[in-house]
Amino acid sequence: MTGVKYSEERVEIISVKEGSNNIISCVVRSELIATTSLPGQFVTVQVNNRGAGCIPVLRRPFAISNVKKDRFEFIFDVVGRGTELLKKVLKEEKCLNILGPLGNGFDLKSEKKQKLLIAGGIGIAPVKRLVQYFSTTDCRTTLIWGNRNKSGFFDTDYFIDQNIKLLICTDDGSMGFEGNVVDLLESEIKNKNLNSMSDYDIFVVGPDPMMKAVCVSVGKRNTVCQVSLETPMACGMGVCQGCAVKKKNEEGYYLVCKDGPVFYSDKIIMN
What we know:
Shape: globular
Low-confidence stretches: none
Structural class: alpha/beta
Number of domains: 2
Number of helices: 7
CATH superfamily of the largest domain: Nucleotide-binding domain of ferredoxin-NADP reductase (FNR) module
Mean pLDDT: 92
Helix content: 10-25%
Distance between the termini: 24 Å
Strand content: 25-35%
CATH class of the largest domain: Alpha Beta
Strand order of the largest sheet: 4-3-7-1-2-6-5
Radius of gyration: 18 Å
């Protein structure tokens, strides 16, 4: 699904919250993005730190995780130079330069009433927007969320309040089911806590190996997923062609920023 044409804005920073494990939640004011963006779309943020010796020239892409009236939230973990600078900017500045909404979001046209959302780590960011969307419908939503350990979870109260079935797992067993999201998925299927996979619309976001493993698991049951790729992007608009992903069963490539970031799992070759 594609929203309206993107726009570049200088937006007010409303709030910044830092959770455990260097995870940052930022809420900014933009009526355009809050009212026109679709689940699965993203924005790019200009990282501009005055006085820094080395400023990244590339904007940073972030999924839109939540919307409310004239504001929206994006979530990120601090993993490199660019996000380190952005964390600093959020403490020092009152506004950000943002471009969006960008990309093609999730396909929400299905009439199936059961939704299965699977998130790994910071992949919960676009999934949070999906949860918000489905909470306004009569769909029954199940969310499987996995992390390496309990420090990777944040804002869990939000999901508990959304009247969904929330299943949590950790690799080390420090919170919830011990194992990864595929282990938990297989356990739920084996114990008949989930219906046939074909009864669900399935949405998967997280590290590529995790998404690939989930797609293999449900693929054995003749079902496809929608996946949102977390690929590094340079321009975010399809100009530089630096975020290509190979098409499955045909020649050529898709551009994640322009054709995605959401794809059906049977349309692409995942790394």
